[in-house]
Specification:
389 residues, single chain, 15 strands, 12 helices, alpha/beta
């Protein structure tokens, strides 16, 4: 979906396909048929943006076989889909029964992360629509915090500088400009937007910026205005933003609130949980840890890294952080010039919701994704953007 900003530039809105992950190119092609095109049809659109997640095997197949890349591009066009952004955070196995900490490997100190991301950039340059020259990729925020010493930090920065050089060369070759954004996430080396400033200014290349995920920002109790002001002052580009909402519990000390939260503790994904105290941010790596005894103070609200559907907040006594998303979006595209032109709805946890809330069948999932995109569309038009055909 495309929108005209009052400054005349185009803002792209997509949804991320990691909600129905596939490890192979055949699986990606099936996604387009079984999921993405039905969402487009529900929206009544001739064209729909998708943020592809390509596992390493699918990316390798596309980057080593020009005919496969041409075939994917033709399939996108045939089904009324377009790609301007990729999700390069998960490397593989995002559809596994247990993902948890595995999603953070390989990290940016591992050569495989550089090669994978460079391959994604080459693929994206070949998938961009004819009238679009700029693409974006979101990526791991360096590493999970427990495995990142100074030597690995230096290796990661070197790898990102190398990536920036390769992206420069790619633009010279193709005329397509691809940028990569570190995606701050609780528990990682770059947990917040503030954490991103130092490593990104040290890299010092505008090809490498930040992906602002509104669920992650909210989980860490960041103030949207402060966060974006810090990035602007530091000259850190917002390469893209993922529109998502976290789980919010206002009174986590109450038994009924803990019972409601427990329904969201599940074995597949990591649900980092945070609370803001006078002494600073406190947290656990997962929701079940927070619910176990007195590990996490419960005198102030909790937020959990669980991407809940944008249009359907949990029932009381829980809510979502949709107001944070709205505040971030206002700052990103509500001003005289957009801070980013790439927006991506990213609710990958539909099938990890409590059983009563999970969509039953592909049709219901398509309905839900279309409803999320409709909400995002309405937020953009309320900010003065005009939806384009």
């Amino acid at each position: 979906m495309r929108f005209r900003h009052p400054d005349g530039s185009t803002v792209h809105l997509a949804y991320c396909t990691n909600v129905h992950p596939a490890e192979t190119l055949d699986g990606v092609l099936a996604q387009l048929r079984d999921h993405c095109e039905p969402v487009r049809r529900r929206l009544g659109r001739d064209r729909l943006g998708i943020g592809l997640w390509l596992a390493k095997d699918a990316a390798h197949a596309l980057v080593t076989d020009p005919s496969a890349l041409r075939g994917l591009r033709c399939e996108l066009e045939r089904r009324g889909l377009e790609v301007v952004t990729l999700n390069g955070f998960p490397y593989e196995g995002f559809g596994a029964e247990e993902v948890k900490y595995r999603v953070y490997t390989p990290d940016w100190a591992d050569p495989e992360r550089l090669e994978y991301t460079a391959a994604l950039a080459r693929v994206l340059a070949g998938l961009l629509p004819d009238d679009v020259t700029d693409g974006s990729i979101s990526t791991l925020p360096l590493a999970w915090r427990t495995v990142h010493d100074e030597q690995r930090a230096l290796t990661a920065r070197t790898a990102l500088r190398t990536l920036a050089d390769r992206l420069d060369a790619l633009q010279e070759l193709t005329g397509r400009s691809i940028r990569v954004g570190l995606e701050p996430e609780p528990g990682c080396v770059v947990e917040t937007t503030r954490d991103a400033v130092a490593p990104l200014t040290a890299i010092g290349h505008d090809r490498i910026g930040i992906c602002v995920d509104t669920c992650h920002l909210a989980t860490s109790f960041e103030d949207p205005h402060t966060a974006l002001d810090d990035l602007t002052r530091a000259g850190v580009p917002v390469v893209k933003s993922q529109l998502s909402a976290a789980l919010h519990a206002e009174q986590p000390h109450l038994p009924e609130v803990r019972e409601a939260l427990a329904a969201f503790a599940e074995p597949r994904f990591l649900h980092q949980t945070r609370t803001s105290t006078l002494a600073g941010l406190r947290g656990t790596d997962d929701l079940d840890e927070a619910l176990a005894g007195d590990t996490l103070p419960d005198t102030a609200p909790w937020r959990a890294h669980f991407h809940v559907p944008l249009h359907a907040a949990p029932t009381a006594p829980l809510t979502s952080t949709l107001p944070v998303l709205k505040s971030v979006l206002t700052r990103l595209v509500g001003g005289p010039r957009p801070l980013t032109h790439h927006l991506e709805v990213e609710t990958y946890t539909w099938q990890a919701l409590p059983p009563a809330l999970r969509p039953r069948g592909r049709g219901r999932l398509a309905d839900g994704i279309a409803a999320e995109l409709t909400l995002a569309r309405d937020l953009l038009t309320d900010l003065g953007l005009k939806e384009l055909p």
